[in-house]
Amino acid sequence: MISTSTVPAPPPQENAPPTPRVPPRRYDADAIAAYYNFRPWLILGRMLRIATLFLVFWLRLQWDHWAQRTEQNIGLRAMQLRQLLISLGPTFIKIGQALSTRPDLIRRNYLEELTLLQDKLPPFDNDLAIAIIERELNQNLGDIYAEFSPQPVAAASLGQVYRARLHSGEDVAVKVQRPHLLPVITRDLYLIRLLITWVGPWLPLNLGHDLRDVIDEFGRKLFEEIDYLNEGRNAEKFAANFREDPTVKVPAIYWPYTSERVLTLEWIQGIKLTRTECMVAAGVDPDQLIRVGVISGLRQLLEFGFFHADPHPGNLFAMADGRMAYIDFGMMDQLEEDTKESLVDAVVHLVNKDYIHLAQDFIHLGFLSPDTDIMPIVPALECVLDEVLDSSVQEFNFKTVTDRFSELMYEYPFRVPAKFALIIRSLVTQEGIALCLNPDFRIVDVSYPYIARRLLQGESAQLRRRLLDVLFKEDRLQWQRLENLIAIARTDQHFNLAPTATLGLQYLFSEEGQFLRRQIVLALTEDDRLHTEEVQRLWNLIKSDLRPLFFIDVAWGALKASVSQTLAKDEEVVAIAR
User: Fold this and answer.
1) Which end of the chain is more exposed for a tag (fewer CB within 10 A), N or C?
2) Dihedral (C-alpha) 314, 426, 82, 274: value to the nearest 10 degrees?
3) Catalytic residues
4) How far apart are CA 155 and CA 271, in angstroms?
């Protein structure tokens, strides 16, 4: 007898995650893929449209290559790429804007064309907008707002804005998200990640790394931007940072009338920064407004670490009292403390033309992978940056730097981290606005005094250490740099040298200042002889910048005696001096 046995069925996979029934509301590439992988009918038509348009674009590129007309037609192809992105809607317009700040991905010719993308679309139906408001806030429109504009006052790719008045009398702006925006964006991001493996090799991109990581970075920021609750929290955090700054205005958020898709905030009665003549007529000084914008931008990066990443002219307004008003806080980012310190390190090494350490800073900041051989990159950095550093302050601007650097980044395995792409976009945009207000403006004329003042004040140990790195080169005190820092800082009318001098003297006499005391003596004495020219420079510096702080010669003499006594107590310094 031959016995037969049945093969047992495999046990069900109890730990297998169930197929999600709806797309996720927070960006998660795996969860999005799990949703659409089993719903091909939702993506087939859109996939064909995207694939067809990019295939036609790729064929044009190939024709240029076969006909040896790549360089002649590159401007035309860049324009066609911009038009292609516009035709594909909000997600692709946002991608184009993001790519316009990514010199590590886009060649310069394409980069310039993508900067022309305008985030403007026709408004959607008013009845649909009102229905969204009533559904989101669970109230009738008339119960929420006493007045509501019949037409939107602004429309963009992600939403549109109405002017309204609350029953309590406050004028407000009501921001309404476009219908079905989350599913549209989610579907497009899924398809982009899927299609990028096909079209990536033929796009004019620098693919030294996985482009899907870049798409994921973009997706996370875009999901944050369409969450109006998150935008409201960002606005309040931004306002808290500038609560003691009378030059910056941030609109208040009305939380009872705000949800993920509806945002009600204080109405800002301001003047667009592109309308210089209107500002002058209102009594606003454009040059002073430029200064407010640049300083507030630097404070965001160097003091708070929380910065507005999309300061285009539609998001900044001049107020009649001279304040700068910020709106639209959907695109924000936060710099960690160690990132800010690494940034300062990079600036110090750039000032000192220490390109080996600068290349290492790029690794620490994420511009280069840890296994990158930096030695071939160092000469290229020197070639590009030497010319920038040797140019005068009047000739320096961020647009020139980014243009020169974009060529370098396309040739070497650089990658711009998402945070720094936003910073670059912010700086270049602000400089462009300032140049519209004053064609002779140079951003360093405002930023140099601020940065010099920050270094000289040295309120933190980290800043004091960076200041020493700036002032010393090969263990020699660079008097000219110290003199320049003080001179530059004093061009800022808001800079008072007295508190800075006090902080400096306190630091010099402290235990932490032992290194500085030692280096000063080393600078004054070398080869067992006194360097009279160094003594003279120190004397001139003290006499011109510190002595006016004291009103009588007795105080000046007491100060010199205190310095001498402090130096005498430092046995190591005395020994070295001998």
Assistant:
1) N
2) 30
3) 310
4) 18
